[in-house]
Amino acid sequence: MLNNFVKSHKPLPVKRESLSLQDIFLNYGLYIAIGIIFLCFSLLNDHFCTLNNMKNVVDQSSYYLVCAMGVTFVLISGANDMSVGAQVAFSSVIGALYLQSFKNIPVSMGIMIALGILIGLVNGLFVVIIGLPPFIGTISTGYVVRGIVAYTTQQFSVTGLPSKYTAFAWGEFLGLSNCTWVGILIVLLSVYILNFTSYGRKLYACGGNRAAANVMGINTTAVKISAYIIAGITSACSAMLLMSRQGMANSGTGELLHMDCIAAAVIGGTSLSGGHGNILGTVVGVFFISMVKSGLNALGLNAFWQMVFTGGILVFAAILDSVKSRNNA
């Protein structure tokens, strides 16, 4: 019964013979836009479309990719999480302070994971138990945890991390950085959970129709809270990668990371209303946004234009999602 429910909430395949301009726009518009933008950057900069540059883009976005995995789970569940950027800052600062004092890497990582689980539970309490709108409940959590670490550090960076820790990000295996491999492993794990486990099917069911999922005996409260816990864990893992790469931690880290993660997921086809989405689509979205930022940097444009461009793409993706939802209704 659950399998039939999930299948019924997936977009119907478009028959070749019935393809219209609207069908092409709705189903392939973003991918066409990605191709056009990629071509434009390649023509404007000879070094953009090179293997080394693409490898750098993937490497630099590995922490962002990991964080976006957790946000995708939350969106599929029918909720949202505006606190992941603040969680990355909070976990990294607390973990860095511990490392600075005790130099114990495994314990530091355990503390960061525990903090991620705790913040995920708090978000779940606010949104699922108390019933606050996801935007209000999670953004308030973000303000609180970022304020705590800003006060603790007085907005100074925490440095002095063990060399073994900072060296991890710069190590390579089979031509890819260690951070990239961590990102790949978390992507594969996320794909497995969503597509090959009963939990994944329950998550889609909760996002598609929570009332119907309750009727089928699914504990929707536990499932939705668990999505926030997963987002907290991926935020902590993201913080570990970023700390290793930068060699420090700062309370101002990831101020717009939550928006980038949501944008990547929506660009990749995850619905803002829940019930639809896939991990590989989010991977495409992360690469696209990272590629755009790299291209704009290479052209010497102001960093604020990156925000303008990302916002424009997010609006475009949200419009597509809205039209698709009305058509499937």
Notes on the structure:
The protein has 329 residues and is mainly alpha-helical. The protein contains 15 helices and two strands. The protein has helices spanning 2-8, 21-44, 51-60, 62-76, 84-102, 105-130, 134-153, 163-168, 178-196, 198-208, 210-215, 220-246, 257-267, 279-298, 303-328, and strands spanning 172-173, 176-177. Strands 1-2 form a two-stranded antiparallel ribbon. The longest helix is centred in the C-terminal third of the chain and has 27 residues, at 220-246. The two termini are 21 Å apart.
Report the span from N to C terminus. Answer: 21 Å
Mean pLDDT reading: 85
Radius of gyration: 20 Å
Counting DSSP H or I runs of 4 or more residues, the number of helices is 15
Main sheet: strands, sense, barrel? 2 strands, antiparallel
Overall number of strands = 2
Following the backbone from N to C, one meets helices and strands in this order, namely: HHHHHHHHEEHHHHHHH
Q: What is the spatial order of strands in the main beta sheet? A: 1-2
Low-confidence stretches: 5-16
Q: Proportion of β residues? A: under 5%
Summed up:
The chain is mainly alpha-helical. The chain has 15 helices and two strands. It is globular and about 60 Å long.
Q: How are the secondary structure elements laid out?
A:
Elements: H1 2-8, H2 21-44, H3 51-60, H4 62-76, H5 84-102, H6 105-130, H7 134-153, H8 163-168, E1 172-173, E2 176-177, H9 178-196, H10 198-208, H11 210-215, H12 220-246, H13 257-267, H14 279-298, H15 303-328
Antiparallel strand pairs: 1-2
Helix pairs in contact: 1-10, 2-14, 2-15, 3-14, 4-9, 4-12, 4-13, 4-14, 5-6, 5-7, 5-12, 6-7, 6-12, 9-10, 10-12, 13-14, 13-15, 14-15
